[in-house]
Inverse folding.
């Protein structure tokens, strides 16, 4: 499935609108324990499947690990220490591998039998079994090569020796043995020369300028044998060399270069051999990544109480008690109110009305996310779901301008709506939230009305659509067009207070409760009161201009900071009041000032 940039952004698939990973769908789903698994999960979320058979194949794999929690935990523990085999193979192919990359590859390949054993007995036809049969290889030849060729603790770069294991190359071993005799001779030279000369301050050293040398303190330098050749004079010491020492030095230094040359050649040969098996190794890496993703999705499903959806080639959309996977997780200690999305036969567009902050946008997004999760092969946050395959998910949510492109909020809105109407098909799912709100009321209402009619009536469109709006006039469309249904968010109202129930129920809403939301947001009380008065006036006059009392603002400003209650409060000595006196005072003020 192709997901356009607007849909990816609006559904917050891999990052939130603020750019954070936490709070996105991927941030919620990502229980993978390997880098390869994390990359594959990102790919699955970005490209949902359009093939029912492949979707069911993945679901069966998730089901296997969902049903067997012990097996899931055992596999995840076995996968966690593995290296990123995919990247290691690609580094080898590109000629950028270092010695420790081959050690990491060897350690990972060495764990494959254990992982195969963990999932060796799944029921026939389940996804893990298929992964083993089709893609799985223990890569014994490659593992054997790495075990006999690369040292257990090689240097981190190719500039140092010690990469190749002893016994792998006869040529290398012979050079090392020859140099070993010379090294031993030099290592023993200091003791031998001290004993021979009787000079206790004699030392053997090495630097890059002179190579190996014999150093004797200034006071004992006169006792140096005639065979010593003076090389350097220091403040407190003299340095000498001998012809025999230089011969052994040449042996050692030539051997160093020779060893480095041979090891580099052997390392490249090993990498070339590994490169020939790149396809097999990459297939194995993908199989490991798939096991990681399947077990991660099963982990999320088990922790979140998800269920396996039924995906088919029909046009059905039936979600029972669906939940938003991200919002549900972020509600600490609070219960998420689930909602159904059950499209009746012939139903095309749902017009959803209701107050701000009541959950309309969450309801729209959760429907799209549940469909998307179903088509990546995951379980979904719902009691049950039957989903006909969707070819595209389109969304038009939120309001933002793109100043760098010279586009206003409304222009962006219209471009996204245009893209949807031109590319959607009868198998698409359309999520439209507050279409038309970026312009004047009548313009916006007219456009929203026309868009709903177009979706409903166009012979090649008629896509399942969730259309959230504040234009209550659009609820009339349900009486005019057979494929349109009205739904609203239930609200409980008592004593002038509003409680949003977050439950989607049939029927249209008659109010938006915008002033109540403004009150919740903390707008000053005079603004709230005046807004209520203006709204009452507008409702009486059917939207005609409201008369403004020119003295109202002046009257409000006459005594902006003074009131009898405040004056009395200033004169009360709180520290001198007994608790019972304080209660009596409060009772007195309540009777006096709340009439």
């Amino acid at each position: 499935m192709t997901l356009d940039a607007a849909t990816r952004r609006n559904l917050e698939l891999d990052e939130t609108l603020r750019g954070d990973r936490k709070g996105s769908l991927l941030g919620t789903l990502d229980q993978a324990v390997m880098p390869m698994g994390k990359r594959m999960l990102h790919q699955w979320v970005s490209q949902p499947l359009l093939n029912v058979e492949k979707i069911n194949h993945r679901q069966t794999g998730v089901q296997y690990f969902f049903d067997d929690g012990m097996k899931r935990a055992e596999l995840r523990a076995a996968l966690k220490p593995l290296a990123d085999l995919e990247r290691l193979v690609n580094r080898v192919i590109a000629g950028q591998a270092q010695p420790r990359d081959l050690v990491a590859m060897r350690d990972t390949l060495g764990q494959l039998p254990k992982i195969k054993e963990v999932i060796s007995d799944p029921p026939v036809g389940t996804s893990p079994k298929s992964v083993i049969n089709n893609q799985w290889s223990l890569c014994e030849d490659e593992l054997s090569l790495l075990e006999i060729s690369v040292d257990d603790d090689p240097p981190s770069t190719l500039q140092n020796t010690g990469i190749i294991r002893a016994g792998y190359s006869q040529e290398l071993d012979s050079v090392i043995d020859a140099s070993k005799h010379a090294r031993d001779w030099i290592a023993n030279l200091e003791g031998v020369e001290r004993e021979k000369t009787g000079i206790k301050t004699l030392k053997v050293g090495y630097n890059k300028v002179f190579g190996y040398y014999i150093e004797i303190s200034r006071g004992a330098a006169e006792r140096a044998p005639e065979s010593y050749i003076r090389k350097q004079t220091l403040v407190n010491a003299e340095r000498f060399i001998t012809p025999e020492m230089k011969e052994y030095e040449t042996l050692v230094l030539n051997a160093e270069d020779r060893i480095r040359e041979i090891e580099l050649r052997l390392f490249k040969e090993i990498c070339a051999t590994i490169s020939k098996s790149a396809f097999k190794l990459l297939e194995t890496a993908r199989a490991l990544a798939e096991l990681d993703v399947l077990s991660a999705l099963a982990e999320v499903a088990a922790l979140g109480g998800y269920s396996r959806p039924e995906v088919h080639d029909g046009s059905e959309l039936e979600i029972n008690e669906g939940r938003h996977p991200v919002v549900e997780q972020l509600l600490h200690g609070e219960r998420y109110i689930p909602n159904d999305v059950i499209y009746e036969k012939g139903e095309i567009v749902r017009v959803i009305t209701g107050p701000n902050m009541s959950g309309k946008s969450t309801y729209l997004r959760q429907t799209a996310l549940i469909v998307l999760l179903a088509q990546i092969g995951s379980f979904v946050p719902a009691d049950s779901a039957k989903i006909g395959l969707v070819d595209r998910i389109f969304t038009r949510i939120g309001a933002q301008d793109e100043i760098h492109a010279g586009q206003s909020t409304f222009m962006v809105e219209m471009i996204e709506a245009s893209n949807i109407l031109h590319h959607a098909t009868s198998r698409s799912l359309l999520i439209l939230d507050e279409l038309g709100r970026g312009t004047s009321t009548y313009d916006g209402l007219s456009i929203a009305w026309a868009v709903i009619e177009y979706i409903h009536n166009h012979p090649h469109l008629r896509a399942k659509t969730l259309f959230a709006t504040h234009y209550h006039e659009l609820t009339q469309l349900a009486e005019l067009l057979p494929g349109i249904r009205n739904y609203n968010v239930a609200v409980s109202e008592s004593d002038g207070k509003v409680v949003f129930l977050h439950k989607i129920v049939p029927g249209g809403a008659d109010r938006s409760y915008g002033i109540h939301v403004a009150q919740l947001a903390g707008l000053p009380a005079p603004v709230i009161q005046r807004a209520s008065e203006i709204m009452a006036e507008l409702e009486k006059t059917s939207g005609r201009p409201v008369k403004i009392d020119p003295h109202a603002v002046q009257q409000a400003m006459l005594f902006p900071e003074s009131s009898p209650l405040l004056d009395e409060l200033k004169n009360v000595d709180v520290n001198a009041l007994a608790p019972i006196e304080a209660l009596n005072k409060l009772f007195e003020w309540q009777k006096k000032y709340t009439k």
